[in-house]
């Protein structure tokens, strides 16, 4: 569904900008550059989208203007408490397989590793559990599928394999985050506070 | 709900390797009921094989309790634990499952005969177990006359022959291609639906997806688990934010 897709893209931009503002007040041009830097420009934004989104976020009370315009007339925005809660809720919830463009997960993780205070390993595990649940549902449908319904069974297989690829990628992300954190135990943006999954627990 | 077939409560297991203590399991709670297949997923070194060994009485926990069909293994003598292993627990491993000099039927009936069941009765039970995994027609074949998938099916029959209700499988599809591996998982799942309690240890998400519940193990701790009920709630709860 095109409108659904467009909706979830705009939701991802909202959350992406909010996550970037977690690092400190910033204005539209800067946010666009940081978004591109964090996501490797896989999802380029134009500055118009950024300002439209900021205006909506301000309307919704998630961001507020920070001080007066600078010499070039640019206005910086900062997160409100409500905006901060929204960021936390976004990182805490899995990406919905059915509605979201697949890139949202890549974007979420790219921002998670660069946003202070985010437990990346728990973002990874939240997604892994969600994807595994979806995979179990596909497999359950396969068990129930009539033996002669090869077409349906193959469609289900395609969903299973796609989910598997995502989990393998999450495993890979987790291993790399843990290794990066082990290499730089201090002053790192990568937060690994939850003791059981944190690098301190690793040998 | 009836008592679980397998219950791990606060199980820890320390190994000493080269003078250093390794905490393979650090307080694991797990209950597996009849009719349920639970997958334990984790990277290598997460403690999943240790968990399976402890659950099957092949290894003892450093602390915590392991109950198989309501019997606390720590309170039993070595001989009694061995009896639990033979009578209550069936194992399926990645390879080295079948004795090459015995037919499928003999491989399946052997554990019963070792346990004192009379030959004719043991063979009848073995034939039933082979029928249940769709291998009845190949009962007379030797392992080298069967495909990898067929051998693994025989191994599942052997693991569940007689009154045993706890099935422990360690990467049972490891050496098989994806289609054959899937057949083995289908049978494993069917056996659990028919009343066995199963624990499947794997690092493959696609295999774990055959389970009713997936437990994620990291560094000897269960960090999360997924199941159909939890999944639906998670999706509903996430609906507002996504």
TrEMBL record, chain A:
<dbReference type="Pfam" id="PF10400">
    <property type="entry name" value="Vir_act_alpha_C"/>
</dbReference>
<dbReference type="GO" id="GO:0003677">
    <property type="term" value="F:DNA binding"/>
</dbReference>
<dbReference type="InterPro" id="IPR036388">
    <property type="entry name" value="WH-like_DNA-bd_sf"/>
</dbReference>
<feature type="region of interest" description="Disordered">
    <location>
        <begin position="181"/>
        <end position="203"/>
    </location>
</feature>
<dbReference type="InterPro" id="IPR018309">
    <property type="entry name" value="Tscrpt_reg_PadR_C"/>
</dbReference>
<feature type="compositionally biased region" description="Polar residues">
    <location>
        <begin position="185"/>
        <end position="196"/>
    </location>
</feature>
<dbReference type="InterPro" id="IPR036390">
    <property type="entry name" value="WH_DNA-bd_sf"/>
</dbReference>
<keyword id="KW-0238">DNA-binding</keyword>
<protein>
    <submittedName>
        <fullName>DNA-binding transcriptional regulator, PadR family</fullName>
    </submittedName>
</protein>
<dbReference type="InterPro" id="IPR005149">
    <property type="entry name" value="Tscrpt_reg_PadR_N"/>
</dbReference>
<feature type="domain" description="Transcription regulator PadR N-terminal">
    <location>
        <begin position="17"/>
        <end position="88"/>
    </location>
</feature>
<dbReference type="Pfam" id="PF03551">
    <property type="entry name" value="PadR"/>
</dbReference>
<feature type="domain" description="Transcription regulator PadR C-terminal">
    <location>
        <begin position="102"/>
        <end position="176"/>
    </location>
</feature>
UniProtKB/TrEMBL annotation, chain B:
<keyword id="KW-0813">Transport</keyword>
<dbReference type="InterPro" id="IPR017871">
    <property type="entry name" value="ABC_transporter-like_CS"/>
</dbReference>
<dbReference type="GO" id="GO:0098796">
    <property type="term" value="C:membrane protein complex"/>
</dbReference>
<dbReference type="Pfam" id="PF00005">
    <property type="entry name" value="ABC_tran"/>
</dbReference>
<dbReference type="InterPro" id="IPR017911">
    <property type="entry name" value="MacB-like_ATP-bd"/>
</dbReference>
<keyword id="KW-0547">Nucleotide-binding</keyword>
<dbReference type="GO" id="GO:0005886">
    <property type="term" value="C:plasma membrane"/>
</dbReference>
<dbReference type="GO" id="GO:0016887">
    <property type="term" value="F:ATP hydrolysis activity"/>
</dbReference>
<dbReference type="GO" id="GO:0022857">
    <property type="term" value="F:transmembrane transporter activity"/>
</dbReference>
<dbReference type="InterPro" id="IPR003593">
    <property type="entry name" value="AAA+_ATPase"/>
</dbReference>
<feature type="domain" description="ABC transporter">
    <location>
        <begin position="6"/>
        <end position="242"/>
    </location>
</feature>
<dbReference type="InterPro" id="IPR027417">
    <property type="entry name" value="P-loop_NTPase"/>
</dbReference>
<dbReference type="InterPro" id="IPR015854">
    <property type="entry name" value="ABC_transpr_LolD-like"/>
</dbReference>
<dbReference type="InterPro" id="IPR003439">
    <property type="entry name" value="ABC_transporter-like_ATP-bd"/>
</dbReference>
<dbReference type="GO" id="GO:0005524">
    <property type="term" value="F:ATP binding"/>
</dbReference>
<protein>
    <submittedName>
        <fullName>Putative ABC transport system ATP-binding protein</fullName>
    </submittedName>
</protein>
<keyword id="KW-0067">ATP-binding</keyword>
């Amino acid at each position: 569904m095109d409108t659904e897709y467009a909706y979830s893209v705009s939701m991802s931009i909202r959350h992406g900008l909010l996550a970037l503002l977690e690092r400190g007040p910033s204005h539209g041009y800067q946010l666009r550059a940081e978004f591109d830097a964090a996501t490797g420009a896989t999802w380029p934004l134009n500055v118009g989208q950024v300002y439209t989104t900021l205006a909506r976020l301000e309307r919704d009370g998630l961001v507020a203007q920070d001080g007066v315009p600078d010499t070039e007339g640019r206005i910086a925005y900062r997160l409100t408490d409500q905006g901060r809660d929204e960021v936390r809720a976004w990182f805490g919830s899995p990406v919905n397989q059915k509605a979201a463009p697949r890139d949202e997960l890549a974007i979420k993780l790219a921002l998670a590793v660069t946003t202070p205070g985010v437990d990346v390993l728990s973002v990874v595990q939240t997604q892994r559990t969600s994807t595994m649940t979806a995979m179990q549902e596909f497999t359950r449908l396969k068990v129930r599928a009539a033996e002669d319904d090869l077409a349906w069974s193959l469609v289900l297989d395609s969903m299973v394999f796609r989910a598997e690829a995502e989990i393998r990628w999450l495993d890979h992300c987790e291993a790399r985050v843990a290794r990066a954190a082990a290499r730089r135990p201090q002053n790192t943006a990568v937060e690994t506070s939850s003791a059981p999954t944190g690098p301190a627990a690793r040998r | 709900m009836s008592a679980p077939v397998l219950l791990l409560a606060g199980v820890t297991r320390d190994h000493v390797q080269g003078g250093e203590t390794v905490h393979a399991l650090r307080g694991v709670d797990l209950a597996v009921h009849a009719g349920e297949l639970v997958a334990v997923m984790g990277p290598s070194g997460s403690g999943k094989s240790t968990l399976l060994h402890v659950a099957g009485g092949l290894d003892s926990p450093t602390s915590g309790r392991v109950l198989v069909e309501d019997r606390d293994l720590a309170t039993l003598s070595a001989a009694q634990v061995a009896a639990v292993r033979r009578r209550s627990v069936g194992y399926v491993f990645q390879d080295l499952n079948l004795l090459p000099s015995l037919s499928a039927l003999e491989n399946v009936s052997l554990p019963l005969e070792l346990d004192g069941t009379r030959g004719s009765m043991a063979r009848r039970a073995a034939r039933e177990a082979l029928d249940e995994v769709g291998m009845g027609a190949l009962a007379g074949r030797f392992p080298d006359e069967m495909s990898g998938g067929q051998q693994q099916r025989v191994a599942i029959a052997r693991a569940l022959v007689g009154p045993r209700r706890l099935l422990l499988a360690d990467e049972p599809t490891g050496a098989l291609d994806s289609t054959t591996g899937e057949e083995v998982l289908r049978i494993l799942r069917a056996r659990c639906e028919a009343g066995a309690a199963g624990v499947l240890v794997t690092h493959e998400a696609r295999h774990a997806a055959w389970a009713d519940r997936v437990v994620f193990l990291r560094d000897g701790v269960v960090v999360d688990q997924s199941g159909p009920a939890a999944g639906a709630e998670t999706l509903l709860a996430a609906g507002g934010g996504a």
